[in-house]
TrEMBL record:
GO terms for molecular function: hydrolase activity. Residues 427-511 form the Non-reducing end beta-L-arabinofuranosidase-like GH127 middle domain. It comes from the Bacteria. The lineage of its organism: Bacteria, Pseudomonadati, Bacteroidota, Chitinophagia, Chitinophagales. This is Glycoside hydrolase family 127 protein. Transmembrane segments: none annotated. PANTHER family: DUF1680 DOMAIN PROTEIN (AFU_ORTHOLOGUE AFUA_1G08910) (PTHR43465). The keyword Hydrolase applies. Residues 1-25 form the signal peptide. Residues 86-400 form the Non-reducing end beta-L-arabinofuranosidase-like GH127 catalytic domain.
């Protein structure tokens, strides 16, 4: 039997999965709760979504080089040998299970299924009878990062349950939720949650997010009440005052100690609470957060944070010393925008998702070996490591979400959002009946701005197909069977017609290279962006020129012409694009600079710079 089931993904996505008939039927009765605020975009994996292009290759690397090679003992030893070596060591297994479950839902890879089943079983062997599933000794329960660890265990357990329907996972998550409700609150003998976590309590209070997932899975109102307790605790003495500060100041750098990851994790929970309650004050908080970060605190590569904190307006230091672009912040910012795109269908959120994916998210995982950088600078060597840290576990979580975002149902219509090569199978609901459909996308994107989409249908059917027109694309054209088709509404081209089997859609667009200014932090510097990809200078490919001594002239025009020299890439590079730019200086009008996408730069350890110094701006 096939069911529609919800997988956590830290976003409570809905996905198709197979019931595990061997699961123990001991779970409490489930009365699923739906959002009061409906979804405009369904975060749902179709029957098949196999990415085969650039993103498909990076998704495969995340599976083959990161997930399947994860240090299983390292992720679990804190539970077997309490206390753990680190105070937060327990968070990694939950992040792994969430990433693995989401990836398996899309790939059905048997190796991954065997691995995640094994790790799930071993994790549950360490859950105490009362539900405790942390890495602390009893005398230190609920201190420092203990609630934080349980938060990620709930994420992982719910994601695993959503993928496999194994009721042991939901039971384990429920036991954790019940234990948290018992220990924290304002009743006699209960603890103040602010005292059980770092960063003005924001680490512990971020458990609001998976507790609302648990409420929606079970319908048990005590988890919803717990989330409201957390929101009230923000304003307890010494609390982070997240809601009240954002309502008043509309700036995230004024909240608590401005710790980015923990704050955004809380705001993900506030998004879900808004979707459940319709509280308009929470919507204001969410909108202020987006407006402030996207306008004042976002790097051109789609991340934020300096020493893991939000800094002053336009203070965007990009070198290694700034400890910028924490991987956990990158993924959480992507999750924030994914939630908002799901709610509103507003493509301004999708534009941020795309920016993050093609630049800082992929840039944080080495395509050669799957190792991850904790902080990923725009100027400096990317410090890729394969050891276990929070970001090494977070970045793969973000990459695992990509198949939820290249295609989906937006405002009740199938919508192609990215022009990556892919094979997609779905079932549309047309006049109350299911219609199997396939979209086979052939494309060389992001190398070229062309794609063909073959439509496969069992019978001719009338429906509206939508194609996203990227904000960076120029001269965007769509043809069906050689004839111009569709009407443009904002960033969407809508084609409402009678579709026949083997109809062919051709999409073409230009990807101009634009010049980005270094702004307040890097005056007299510039960078290049082609399509969604920010480009970078990798010094290992530029031995003939030192950009810091070349006295390059600031480009005279906003658009720039590059020469594709991808056939000159070194053999030891994982395939990417390579461009040559003619950047004259007073001494040498024929300077040539070699550029690669930032996401692929530094893969061989080379010093990388997005920002290029210039003279004569």
């Amino acid at each position: 039997m096939i069911l529609k089931i919800a997988a956590s993904l830290n976003l409570l996505f809905i996905a198709s999965g197979f019931v595990n008939v061997s699961a123990q039927a001991t779970v409490k009765p489930v009365q699923k709760i739906e959002y009061t605020i409906p979804s405009s975009y369904k975060l749902e994996i179709p029957e098949k979504d196999h990415l085969t292009g650039y993103l498909g290759e990076r998704y495969k690397i995340n599976l083959e080089q990161r997930l399947l090679k994860v240090d299983e003992e390292g992720l679990l030893e804190g539970f077997y040998s309490r206390p753990g070596k680190q105070r937060w060591i327990g968070e990694h297994i939950g992040k792994y299970l969430e990433t693995a479950a989401n990836t398996w839902l899309n790939t059905k890879d048997p190796r991954l299924k065997e691995q995640m089943d094994r790790m799930f079983t071993r994790l549950l062997e360490n859950q105490k009878e009362d539900g405790y599933l942390g890495t602390y000794l009893p005398e230190n329960y609920w201190t420092a990062w203990d609630v934080w660890v349980h938060k990620y265990n709930i994420y992982g357990l719910l994601a695993y349950y959503g993928a496999t329907n194994d009721s042991k996972a939901l039971n384990a998550a429920i036991k954790i939720g019940d234990l948290l409700c018992k220990n924290f609150g304002t009743g006699a003998g209960q603890k103040n949650i602010l005292k059980s976590g770092s960063h003005v309590g924001m680490a512990a209070t971020s458990v609001i997010d998976p507790m609302l997932d648990l409420y929606m899975w079970t319908g048990d109102k005590k988890y919803y009440d717990f989330a409201n307790y957390v929101i009230s605790a923000y304003d307890f003495e010494g609390g982070p005052a997240i809601v009240s500060t954002l309502l008043k100041q509309q700036r995230v750098d004024k909240v608590a100690n401005s710790k980015s990851y923990e704050m955004l994790s809380n705001i993900l929970g506030l998004i879900k609470m808004y979707r459940l309650s319709g509280n308009t004050d929470l919507l204001k908080v969410i909108n202020y957060t987006f407006d402030d970060i996207s306008t004042n605190r976002l790097f051109v590569t789609g991340t934020s944070s300096d020493h893991e904190r939000f800094m002053d307006n336009q203070y965007l230091r990009a070198d290694t010393a700034a400890h910028m672009g924490e991987g956990c912040v990158t993924t959480t910012w992507m999750q924030f925008n994914t939630q908002m795109f799901s709610i509103t269908g507003d493509l301004k959120y999708y534009n941020e998702i795309e920016k993050t994916i093609y630049n800082h998210l992929l840039g944080a995982e080495n395509p050669r070996n799957g190792c991850v950088s904790y902080y990923t600078p725009l100027i400096g060597e990317k410090p890729y490591r394969c050891s276990i840290t929070c970001c090494m576990s977070s970045v793969p979580r973000g990459i695992a979400l990509i198949p939820y975002l290249n295609y989906g149902i937006l405002q009740n219509a199938p919508t192609i959002l990215m022009y990556e090569a892919a094979s997609i199978k779905d079932q549309l609901t047309i006049a109350g009946k299911k219609l199997p459909v396939e979209f086979n996308i052939k494309s060389a994107f992001p190398e070229k701005g062309t794609a063909t989409i073959d439509v496969k249908l069992a019978k001719a059917s009338k429906f509206n197909l939508q194609l996203r027109k990227p904000e960076w694309a120029k001269n965007f054209t769509v043809k069906v069977n050689g004839k111009t088709a569709g009407t443009t509404s904002g960033e969407l081209v809508k084609i409402d017609r009678l579709w026949n089997n083997n109809d062919k859609i051709t999409v073409a667009f230009e990807m101009p290279t634009v010049v980005l200014d270094g702004g307040k932090s890097y005056p007299n510097y510039f960078a290049f962006k082609r399509g969604p990809q920010v480009l970078a200078v990798d010094y290992s490919l530029n031995s003939s020129i030192d950009i810091n001594k070349a006295n390059l002239k600031y480009p005279a025009t906003a658009n720039y012409t590059l020469t594709d020299i991808s056939n000159q890439l070194p053999k030891d590079w994982v395939k990417t694009l390579l461009f040559s730019a003619n950047l004259p200086s007073a001494q040498n009008p024929d300077n040539k600079l070699v550029l690669v996408p930032y996401a692929d730069a530094s893969q061989t350890g080379g010093f990388t710079s997005v920002w290029i110094p210039s003279v004569g701006k």
